[in-house]
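Subject: complex prediction, re-run

Hi both,

The earlier run crashed halfway through, so I resubmitted it with identical inputs.
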Amino acid sequence: GAVVSQHPSWVICKSGTSVKIECRSLDFQATTMFWYRQFPKQSLMLMATSNEGSKATYEQGVEKDKFLINHASLTLSTLTVTSAHPEDSSFYICSAPTRADTQYFGPGTRLTVL
Amino acid sequence: DAKTTQPPSMDCAEGRAANLPCNHSTISGNEYVYWYRQIHSQGPQYIIHGLKNNETNEMASLIITEDRKSSTLILPHATLRDTAVYYCIVRVGGGNAGNMLTFGGGTRLMVKP
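This time it finished cleanly. Structure:
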C-alpha cells in the first residue's frame, strides 16, 4: 500500500509554545490530506481537511487560528499547534487518499504539553 | 455517510478465524464499506474495502450481504499481532478524494494464545 509519514513521532513542549507536525505522502501525490486528533480511549475525530493551493476547511469546534494548516505541495501538509496548552495534548494523525480514493494514514504524532 | 454499528469488543483464539460483524442498514447505493484497524498507539491501517461483491486480499476477506445492510470482515488465521481496534466505515467512494472517513467506536479484537 501507499506510505504516509509523519514527523515528529512524539514531541514534548512547554505551555505557550508552538509545535509543527509534518505529514508527507512518500510515493504518491495528494491534493487533499486530512488531520485527525485522538484522545486516550477515544476514536479518531476529524479536525480539518488540508487542500493543496487553497485554505484548509475546519470541522465545527476546531479553532483555525490555533491549528494552522499549510498544504505546501502535493506531498506535504503541516499542522502547527500555536500557543499549545495541556488540553492540546493528544495523538495527531494525518491521512492522504490515493488516486484510487483509498486513504492511508501516517503513524501519528503524540503531543504532550507541559 | 451511513452510520455503522459494531460490537465493542470480541475475543478470538490464536490460529482461529476472526469474524468481525458490521451493520450498516442505511447504506446508500454509491457507498462503499471500508475496514481499517488501529494497533495501540499507531495510525490506522487500511485492510480492505468493497461495494457489493465479496473481496479478498492478503490480509482479510470481506463478505457483504446481498442487501448490503451488513458485512463481515474475516481474518482467516488470527495471530497475536492482529489484536487491535477494527473500524468499519461506510462512505462514498469512486475517486472523489475529498471524502473523509468518519470513525465510530470500532470493535476491540483481542487475540488470545
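Residues 43 and 75 of chain B are 20 Å apart (CA to CA).

- K.
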